[in-house]
């Protein structure tokens, strides 16, 4: 299904000028506001009643219901030289992809610019807005690149992210994405660029995608962050079911997982474990990342089987 004609997509496309904005940025409640969160990141806070604000607000409520608290919606002001350069770069590549596919019929023609959600951390936000994406924070299950959720799949994006702190604070970028002609990328792929010049991006499913895959070679030319949504989620939002099972050392778990998972995914798990050991991510975030790679069924099976042996020794 192609969502190019949705009210959300079409309305946002037509509301890029004349929005009501505020310089304060209510994300300041997360940290002392000197300077303001908005000013520090080159953002402008949208106010209730602004058409873009109302569209994004309704999209968030439709996708998340009342289980999340929406704090603020901010627009990228493209105030710095670097961010303005990124805007021009995006426009150049949009025209290039449009020319590349000119005359093609069906769903493959044109630049196919969509909106997509991507969760980021507060520490990397400023760098992304100024310089672009450096290292996609995902499990690598669909190859090397930036994964975004379609505008109608916000829940998938939030579930795939980690809370910034125990209060459930999360930062979600809503970006324009040049999809061009997409190819299906199977789970477990190690792909890092289009399989042929015919394609520009990847998806997990052509008819009803839940993931847009923008290769690492394209993520700073084909993705343009335009809005930031700050929200709070319940503490256990990502964990509707808790894994109750015997304890086991993490290196032993990795060794056991290596019998079931392909080497590239084991390498990613090892990296997450090193990050946790070096205090770059929390233990809860480590567990969430491993669960996204393995799935609960396999993880529970291994922990029970190996964990019981460890306890009996």
Automatic annotation (TrEMBL):
Keywords: Developmental protein, Nucleus, Stress response. Gene3D superfamilies: 3.90.228.10. Residues 241-312 form the RST domain. One of its GO terms (cellular component) is nucleus. Residues 31-251 form the PARP catalytic domain. Residues 1-36 are annotated as: Disordered. InterPro entries: Poly(ADP-ribose)pol_cat_dom, RCD1/SRO1-5, RST. It is found in: Nucleus. Its main location: nucleus. Residues 8-29 have a biased composition (Polar residues). GO terms for molecular function: NAD+ poly-ADP-ribosyltransferase activity. This is PARP catalytic domain-containing protein.
């Amino acid at each position: 299904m192609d969502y190019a004609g949705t009210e959300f997509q079409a309305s946002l496309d037509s509301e890029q000028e004349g929005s009501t904005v505020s310089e304060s940025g209510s994300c300041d409640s997360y940290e002392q506001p000197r300077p303001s969160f908005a000013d520090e990141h080159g953002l402008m806070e949208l106010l209730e009643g602004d058409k873009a604000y109302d569209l994004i607000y309704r999209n968030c409520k439709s996708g998340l219901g009342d289980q999340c608290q929406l704090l603020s919606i901010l627009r990228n002001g493209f105030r710095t030289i670097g961010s303005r350069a990124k805007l021009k770069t995006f426009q150049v590549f949009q025209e290039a992809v449009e020319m590349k596919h000119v005359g093609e019929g069906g769903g493959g023609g044109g630049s196919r610019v969509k909106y997509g959600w991507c969760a980021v951390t507060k520490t990397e936000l400023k760098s992304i807005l100024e310089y672009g994406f450096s290292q996609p924070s995902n499990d690598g299950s669909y190859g090397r690149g930036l994964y975004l959720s379609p505008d109608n799949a916000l829940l998938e994006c939030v579930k795939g992210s980690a809370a910034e702190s125990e209060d459930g604070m999360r930062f979600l970028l809503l970006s324009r994405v040049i999809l061009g002609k997409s190819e299906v990328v199977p789970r477990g792929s190690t792909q890092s660029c289009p399989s042929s010049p015919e394609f520009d991006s990847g998806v997990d499913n052509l008819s009803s995608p839940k993931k847009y895959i923008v290769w690492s070679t394209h993520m700073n030319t084909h993705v343009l962050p335009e809005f930031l949504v700050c929200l709070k989620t319940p503490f256990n939002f990502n964990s509707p079911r808790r894994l109750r099972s015997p304890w086991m050392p993490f290196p032993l778990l990795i060794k056991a997982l290596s019998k079931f998972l392909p080497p590239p995914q084991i390498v990613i798990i090892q990296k997450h474990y090193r990050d946790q050991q070096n205090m770059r991510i929390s233990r809860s975030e480590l567990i969430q990342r491993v669960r996204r790679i393995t799935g609960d069924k396999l993880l529970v099976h291994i922990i029970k089987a190996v964990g019981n042996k460890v306890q009996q020794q």
